[in-house]
Specification:
The structure is a homodimer. Chain A is mainly β. Chain A contains one helix and nine strands, in the order βββββββββα. In chain A, a hairpin with a 4-residue loop joins strand 7 and strand 8 (about 115).
Chain lengths: ~140, ~140
């Protein structure tokens, strides 16, 4: 490709009881547990103002995904026809960014660490970005 | 930072009548126009199955953003107190990924090109990923 590339510098890491992909639900609302988001000291000032009860969008880098997959059987069900990855939530995609809607349960350690739920990302998943839910952001922030 | 870095390879580019940041609305629902999403030949097979009427999440790389900003006055309003970028939708943030909710209006050119609305990203903005809205994905895809 002729287009330029860009570098993701993770802002933190997911700490979770989930350690294996095969034990993780496919979506947060399918029984995913709580998790901790541990930010790097460099990124931690960006959390200022986040409070328990906030609803956030977490973007992660699904570091175990396959980046050369463009079509999949949705949810791994071979009875479903092949479909483009951009119409699915498959982790396998050219830029494997995970998108997770979570509720903030706790903010600790001088704002460097958040407890959130639900989160289906496994332990060690790099965190790329954190955003407020759009319904909050459009009018208030 | 000791954590590894990752490389974004854009899957396409935004083509829009918006060419200047200062003319762009801050959010899509604040009067943003239609735009074309032009995919690279490599990524285009990932669009298979996308249809007019689909609601998608577009992730972009806000290539003009400042990556060293961690706290901002929301919406650039100096009367508002400084707050962490992760509680705002500011484009300035360590990994400047834009998140846009759009409706698909048209699919053309053997699925390499989508017309969508609304999109506040300016012409030339790299596209990082495309996902179905979560309400569609959790149960159906």
């Amino acid at each position: 490709m002729s287009s330029p590339h860009y570098t993701i510098e993770p802002i933190g890491v997911v700490r979770s009881e989930l350690t294996k992909l095969e034990e993780s639900p496919m979506q947060g609302d399918e029984g995913a547990p709580e998790a901790w988001l541990e930010l790097t000291p460099e990124a931690a000032p960006g959390l200022m103002g986040i409070l328990p009860g906030d609803e956030l969008i977490i973007l992660t880098w699904l570091h175990l995904a396959s980046r050369d997959v463009l079509q999949v059987h949705p949810r791994g069900d071979l009875k479903r026809p092949l479909t483009g990855v951009f119409t699915t939530r498959s982790p396998d995609r050219p830029n494997p960014i995970g998108l997770h809607y979570v509720l903030v349960l706790e903010v600790v350690d001088a704002q460097q660490k958040l407890r959130v739920a639900p989160l289906e990302a496994i332990d060690g998943t790099p965190i790329v970005d954190i955003k407020p839910m759009i319904s909050m952001s459009a009018s208030n922030r």
